[in-house]
């Protein structure tokens, strides 16, 4: 049972929380000031992520892993499946959401706002809430209330809880910044992919743009999937690869956006 958590771990966790909550909020305010319909698009983006990724995609995982229980034993195949499933469900949700939005307003800022909503709610749900929980636990440990965190636990449950708190204390402080940085470039990715799908919906690009979005989404998810399955080791090389792939996607989308529209 740790007696304290390094102050730098708390600071880096706080910075990650600010990125997960503050970056989407700041982008949301900015795009709402640019375009009067942006607030609605942000909400639709968030809603489509929840339905597509958190409900329907998870249902697929339950069905697939129930039918193919040995899939987890093949890390590469399992990682590829997870990346493609995420790309398919999130980009399909993005396509449907933007198609509905663009019937009323097809301005580029609608695509931008959708991306803020999609990436923002993902940042909050996937990382932000967990980081806030970690901050509360860190504060309690450093204020001498650590024992209350495991009060009522006995046996193996107590041992596991103590091991988890010890692991939190022993984790290198910079690692706590990784979650926030990952969400920051993930938001950039979601904005780029939203603009790509926006170009499909507004017919600046043919339907192959939708397939491209699925593949690009899967590709950029691959480093994290390979890290989680143990194929890639080292969190910072994994994050660097994620940044580079995201930057490549952003540059590609910018180039497609700047192409003269076909008439």
Number of strands: 0
Q: Name the overall outline.
A: globular
- Distance linking N and C termini: 67 Å
- Low-confidence residue ranges: none
Could you tell me the radius of gyration in angstroms? Answer: 20 Å
Description of the structure:
The protein is an all-alpha fold and 263 residues long. Helices cover 82% and strands 0% of the residues. Helix 1 (7-34) packs antiparallel against helix 4. The longest helix is centred in the middle third of the chain and has 35 residues, at 108-142. The chain is globular. The termini are far apart. The mean pLDDT is 94.
Please write out the topology:
Blueprint (H helix, E strand, L loop, with lengths): L6 H28 L3 H30 L7 H30 L3 H35 L3 H4 L5 H16 L4 H27 L6 H21 L6 H24 L5
Helix pairs in contact: 1-4, 1-7, 2-3, 2-4, 3-4, 3-7, 3-8, 4-7, 7-8, 7-9, 8-9
